[in-house]
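worker-03 picked up job from queue 'complexes'. Input manifest follows; two sequence lines, order preserved.
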Amino acid sequence: MSNSIWIHYSRPRPHWYLLSEPEQTALQQNWSAIREQAEAAGGATQGRFHIRGQHDFQEVEIWTFPQTMDAFNHWSNLVAARYNEFFAFSNNIGLGLEA
Amino acid sequence: MTSLTGDTDVFSSAADNGSPEASVMFVGYRQDELPGIYTETHRQAILAVLAELAAEGWTLALRKVFDPTAGNSPVGLDTGFTHEHDIAGVFEAPNLEAAITGTVRLERAGWARLFRTEWLMGVKEFAPVMGEGAITNHGWVFLALWEWNDQWCEATPAERTEYDFECDIAFKGDLAHKVNIAGRHRMDWSHHWHHLGAWEIGHPDVADSAIRGHEDVADFKFTTSRHIVGRLTPLAELIAPRH
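worker-03 finished. Artifact:
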């Protein structure tokens, strides 16, 4: 059961553009592996969407997780892999509405 | 495991000793302009939920963070005189699940009728630090939210560590102002602010004086901050109906 929604807004920080393509690719692969790990642990994502045309951020990702702590752990894994150093972000957590 | 940076002279990692590990911060804007929206019945329902939360291990009075023997009556910050919002506050919850479900329980009891609220939830990273003198009748609280800017993110690990110890100079100055610092809470997983620091202070001017010390050591070269000063007031008063 997925009861928590986690919404993640992001845009590259300026120095992201200074990295070489192999450096960017290596980091992106690490973060993709963490996303796959989150899905294997019960998380589910609607995917990543481009929103730069009408928002301060460039992308939004929408996830559901069984527990609030799963969202925290997923984010902690991304931070450990330096994601927050290269992407500015804003996150939200929410619970499913009960009838 | 959850700390974003290492310990410094002032701050050490929070101990896993069974104390509340999560925090709930709120900033509220009153919206009960019309009679009937929010009544004494709602206030009593909110107070009943707060009593339940206290029984479930929540800390509802910041004083108790520094002195476990202190009372646990719910306390908030009266912020309307200096800020756009009317109320702010910090509770500590047993864990993140309890934190978020607690906010929903409060909203449903009537809080949502009274306030338009920004809720922030975090995990305790660093343990509380007592200031010099550690007086108990502080009366005021200073809340600091901050996020690391692009320059921090571009800096090397050595530059960041050097910066942490520069900031430590200012934090030592804060402690000399008899400020008690409720550690550091990590909010980045659910908000754009990365951290919360909550201080007990003796007077609003202490906040200004202390922040000048942080400016002197270039604290803000690597951060964007939001600061809130409020007078400690029983929450039961702050949520009293107007009509």
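worker-03 released lock.
The longest helix of chain B spans residues 157-176.
Helices of chain B lie at 40-55, 62-66, 96-114, 150-154, 157-176, 204-216, 235-238.
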